[in-house]
């Protein structure tokens, strides 16, 4: 996405103008397997803090019914204490990110991170029906915005403990 900041540019910014680093780890969920999640850049813009260790969590569904535990996790170091964790799930599986994180945290690169003590960040998009934007009838925009409110919450879908979740909200006008 053009809105998503590049990894090299972001790491350079973190190294040259470091934000306050909080102890512990944060897991930021993202649909992309590259770039910096909008949730993190939005959070940093407003709070100017970042955990010492940050995991970008992405889930990929593969063309197999199930994925063995040994092939489930792929780690990609990003830099500045950030690691991209890509989970592979089969098309017949329900993504259980907590189980995947337990597997990932056994690996040497993530040693010392306890999935039960991570702060989980999700982006929450609020769709606003606007009469200004063209392309769709206003009643359809309102219907879509209402239906979007009824969508399942990602934390429940990925089986993440609700008490450890922070949602970073973004408004999108349609």
Summarize the SSE layout with pairings:
Elements (H helix, E strand, L loop, with lengths): L6 H10 L3 E10 L8 H10 L1 E14 L10 E7 L2 E9 L6 H8 L14 E10 L9 H12 L4 H4 L7 E9 L1
Parallel strand pairs: 1-2, 1-5, 2-4, 5-6
Antiparallel strand pairs: 3-4
Characterize the structure shown.
The protein is of the alpha/beta class. Helix content is 25%, strand content 34%. It has 5 helices and 6 strands. The protein has helices at residues 7-16, 38-47, 97-104, 138-149, 154-157; strands spanning 20-29, 49-62, 73-79, 82-90, 119-128, 165-173. Strands 3-4-2-1-5-6 form a 6-stranded mixed sheet, sandwiched between helices. Helix 2 links the parallel strand 1 and strand 2 (49-62). The longest helix has 12 residues, at 138-149. The chain is globular, with a radius of gyration of 17 Å.
Strands, total number: 6
Distance separating the two termini = 18 Å
Average per-residue pLDDT, rounded, comes to: 87
Uncertain stretches: none
The neighbouring-strand order within the major sheet is 3-4-2-1-5-6
What coarse outline follows from CA principal-axis ratios? globular
Instruction: From the alpha carbons, calculate the radius of gyration and give it in angstroms.
Output: 17 Å
In helices, the fraction of residues equals 25-40%
- The H/E string reads HEHEEEHEHHE
Structural class: alpha/beta
* Major sheet details: 6 strands, mixed
Q: Number of helix segments?
A: 5
Tell me the fraction of residues in β-strands, as a range. Answer: 25-35%
């Amino acid at each position: 996405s053009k809105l998503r900041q590049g990894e090299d540019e972001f790491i350079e910014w973190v190294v040259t103008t470091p934000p306050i680093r909080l102890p512990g780890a944060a897991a930021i969920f993202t649909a992309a397997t590259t770039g910096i999640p909008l949730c993190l850049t939005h959070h940093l813009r407003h709070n100017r803090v970042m955990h010492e260790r940050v995991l970008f969590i992405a889930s990929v569904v593969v063309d197999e019914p199930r994925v063995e535990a040994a092939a489930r996790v792929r780690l990609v170091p990003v830099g500045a204490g950030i690691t991209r964790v890509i989970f592979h799930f089969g098309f017949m599986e329900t993504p259980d990110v907590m189980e995947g994180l337990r597997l990932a945290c056994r690996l040497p690169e993530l040693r010392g991170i306890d999935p039960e003590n991570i702060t989980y960040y999700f982006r929450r998009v609020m769709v606003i029906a606007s009469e200004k934007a063209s392309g769709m009838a206003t009643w359809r925009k309102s219907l879509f915005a209402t239906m979007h409110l009824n969508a399942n919450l990602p934390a429940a879908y990925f089986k993440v403990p609700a008490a450890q979740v922070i949602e970073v909200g973004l408004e999108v006008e349609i």
